[in-house]
Amino acid sequence: MLSDRLPTFLVIGAAKAGTTSLHNYLCQHPDVFMSAEKEPRFFAFEGRSPDFCGPWDEGFPAPSAALARRSSHADAITELSRYQRLFRDVRGERAIGESSVTYLVEPGTEARIRRRLPEAKLIVVLRNPADRAYSAFLHSRRLGIEPLADFADALDAEAGRIARGWATSWQYARAGFYAEHLARYYAQFPREQIGVFLYDDLAASPVALVQAVCRFLGVDAAFVPDVSERHNVTVGDVVRPRAALLDRLLNRPNAVKWLAKQVVRRRRTRQWLRARTLATVGTVTERRRPAPLDADVRRRLLNLYRSDILRLPALTGVDVSHWLSARG
Prior knowledge:
Blueprint: E1 9-13, H1 19-27, E2 32-34, H2 42-45, H3 65-71, H4 80-85, E3 95-99, H5 102-105, H6 109-116, E4 121-126, H7 129-143, H8 151-163, H9 178-186, E5 194-198, H10 199-204, H11 206-217, E6 236-241, H12 244-251, H13 255-263, H14 267-281, E7 283-288, H15 295-316
């Protein structure tokens, strides 16, 4: 029955820590069902309409209405019936999941998950919080939703933005207080239901990391995913069609892309169609490598996070002391 179709596990974060890649690798597992829509954010905003601001509320032009809604969470799924429809194609898979990185940072999410899914397993992937914050900033700049060109300036502006009601999309530093955020989950769920993994391991040995996640989920851990493609990468080669309109349709979040995902359910089919479209219209490949995180800004952030990082091993059982190095 549709009413019974809810996840058995959730990928709750962190943003810019490889969760999109993990989501897509798990999609390949025959015993795992992942929702076609990543980031439904249901448990973050269940039963209420997100009311966040953003830079366009203060005069900065939004790249698109769809991207403005996405960044401010106005398009989050908040109704149970709509959320359940994400899992309508489940066909006996042993593990059913979805990924919403907002779950880690939005207070109260853990209680809503506990109320509806008390036995759910929760997966979190953690990345050095200084690097994660900078990657999130670069991602926002690439999307055209961050008006400040300098990362240090954006950090300086963050407290004021939060006070004015800007959404988590612009809370670059706040999102990295992992111990603070995870403590709420450990207060609600048994330790054995929370799986903590590291971004560095995912980047270095993605197959091994996915197999470790499979063991945590109780599905076949001998599974070997195709990890040849990285997903939602902020830096690197950018392939763009020559037509500006087609560029926006293919490379930025928008309503057309969302609708296409609903019509074409298989990710591999969508990738093939995108590749054929690019091959037909001609492409321009840009090689862009942003500057590394400034050493002074890194030290500033690590000093900010120091006490939180030192709490993590006792809380999670995962050693992250190497994060405190000021080296890039």
